[in-house]
Amino acid sequence: MPVEASNGEDRKTIIVFSGDLDRAMAAFIIATGAAAMGSKVTMFFTFWGLNILRKPSGEAVRKPLLDRLFGWMMPRGPAKLGLSKMNMGGLGARMMRYVMKQKKVASLEELMDTAKELGVKLVACTMSMDVMGLRPEELIDGLEFAGVATYLSEADRANVNLFI
Amino acid sequence: MSEKYVNARGLQCPGPLVQLSREAKNAAKGDRIIVEATDMGFKKDVAAWCAKTGNRLVNIGECNGVVRAEIEVS
Predict the structure, then answer these.
(1) How is domain B3-55 classified at the architecture level of CATH?
(2) How would residue A104 be classed by pLDDT, with cut points 50, 70 and 90?
């Protein structure tokens, strides 16, 4: 029998700290798998993980130079993420994406869509958004915005908590 | 009591599980769901899925690289 929280629900929390393609995929595969098994899953995106949530189209947002610099230097969205190892200036990521397509592994974008469809909650950390100069308009739709207390109260009720 | 067939061949994890959970959501108690997958991990996964969701794994087999699982919705 699965371990159940006091209110009878089965919850999982995942902190997505990394902005690497391979790590993002692992996070979303686990989230989607858990949701397919009946868990309520919440994913908290913080620091580099926020880049996974960036809209690919550059939203014209007025912001200070330093914030804009941060934005330019970081990958914008799932298609631009690098590998955590052997990225080789982006070549590694391209090769990985190619191999995954050949072997019919769902792309990160597809995994994100499936996760949303299965009710996985995506939450963006407002503190790190502020640090990296990211505004809500620059991130995809369907997100919640919160801080550490929200994460901790969810994690308190979860039976699995991952830091990816 | 109906029988549903899910063709998850060629799908990689978590594809087959997601398809199965979608069918199960729309199924009634007593329905049978037959899933075929080429992802070898699915053989163990489907047993774990059933144990977790409380559905009954009636039959599980492997033939020519295809895992065939029969689940009874409980």
Answers:
(1) 2-Layer Sandwich (3.30)
(2) confident
